[in-house]
Amino acid sequence: MGGWVYIVANKRNGTLYVGVTADIRRRAWEHREGQVEGFTSRYRLKRLVHVERHDDIRDAIHREKRIKHWSRNQKLALIETANPDWDDLYDTLN
Questions:
Q1: Which residues contact 51 (CB under 8 A, 6 or more apart)?
Q2: ∠ CA 56-20-85 to the nearest 5 degrees?
Q3: Residue 21 main-chain phi, psi, to 5 deg
Q4: CA 24 to CA 50: how far, in whole Å?
Q5: CATH of segment(s) 3-92
Q6: 54: which of 16, 58, 59, 79 fits an S-S bond (Cβ 3.0–4.6 Å)?
Q7: From the centroid of its chain, how far is CA 85?
Q8: What percent of the chain has pLDDT over 70?
Q9: Domain coordinates in residue numbering, the chain
Q10: Span 42-64, mean pLDDT?
Q11: This model's pTM is above 0.90
Q12: Number of C-beta neighbours around residue 35 at 10 A
């Protein structure tokens, strides 16, 4: 089973959350609708700004853990490489 690593934000250069899921559409919708209690709902992290598909969920989990330990500047660079305008990628999901 594959997986996704994702980053949600509240605005450009705002608060970031790095997560992993097997179902990116459902998980992104949960963030958008405030269904995920805790950090993401407290800071209103609804904008999906980065996604990575992995064929194996274990690879996705490993990548998520690595990204979580990166500096903020490294995370910002990752987002801006593929999504320089910080568009919400939710509508691009298949």
A1: 4, 5, 6, 24, 89, 93
A2: 110
A3: -155, 160
A4: 11
A5: 3.40.1440.10
A6: 59
A7: 15
A8: 100
A9: 3-92
A10: 97
A11: yes
A12: 12
pLDDT given for residue 84 in this prediction: 97
72-87 per-position pLDDT tens digit: 999 999 999 999 999 9
Structure tokens at 80: 């801006």
Percent over 90 (pLDDT), the chain? 96
Q: In this model, does residue 94 exceed pLDDT 80?
A: no
SS3 readout for the chain: CCEEEEEEECCCCCCEEEEEECCHHHHHHHHHCCCCCCHHHHCCCCEEEEEEEECCHHHHHHHHHHHHCCCHHHHHHHHHHHCCCCCCCHHHCC
Q: 47-54 and 16-21 as β-strands: parallel, antiparallel, unpaired? A: unpaired
